[in-house]
Design brief:
mainly alpha, 79% helix
Length: 173
């Protein structure tokens, strides 16, 4: 599997978001074309990634690329429609749209999102800053649920995710 091509849709999506940042003062007509060309580029890069890696893909990787194609295809239509629907949008709107599109295209960002999400829920440093504010503000039964169940659920989710993704040899499951 050609790993450089594997990340091409993500690079094109994040690159388009960066181009929006560079051309923030170019005006809406230019930003519309950047968005449309970027969305087409993301879709074609998904197809190209599948074409280059097709013989070496596992069934799970093929399914992942099919979902990436579906995501980029719907993203193309959403971005195209948003150019008409929201004509006054600035570079931030389009840039965030491409960051969102790129965020849905691969597993490393998904892993990071799960790590941060479970870290916040579990109160792991430095993601624990909500705990001192939440416990005193919550009613006593809710505070008991927060410390007795919710924090442990985050740790449980992180453990399950670890064993599901990494499958260590010392695993009992």
């Amino acid at each position: 599997m050609n790993i450089n091509i594997w990340f091409l849709p993500l690079i094109v999506s994040f690159g388009t978001a960066f181009v929006h940042l560079i051309f923030e003062k170019a005006g809406r007509p230019v930003l519309k074309w950047i968005s449309l060309i970027g969305a087409i580029g993301v879709l074609f890069s998904c197809f190209y990634s599948m074409y280059v890696n097709y013989n070496s893909l596992t069934s799970v990787e093929t399914l992942g690329l099919l979902f990436a194609i579906l995501i980029s295809f719907i993203g193309l239509f959403s971005i195209s429609y948003s150019q008409w629907y929201n004509p006054e949008a600035n570079f931030v709107y389009d840039g965030l749209l491409f960051l969102f599109l790129g965020g849905m295209l691969w597993k490393h960002i998904f892993f990071f999102s799960v790590l941060v999400g479970t870290g916040i829920k579990a109160g792991i440093f430095p993601l624990h800053t909500w705990l001192p504010d939440a416990h005193p503000a919550a009613p006593t039964p809710v505070s008991a649920m927060l410390s007795g169940v919710m924090i442990k659920t985050g740790i449980y989710t992180f453990i399950r995710f670890y064993f599901l993704i990494f499958k260590p040899s010392w695993s009992i499951g």
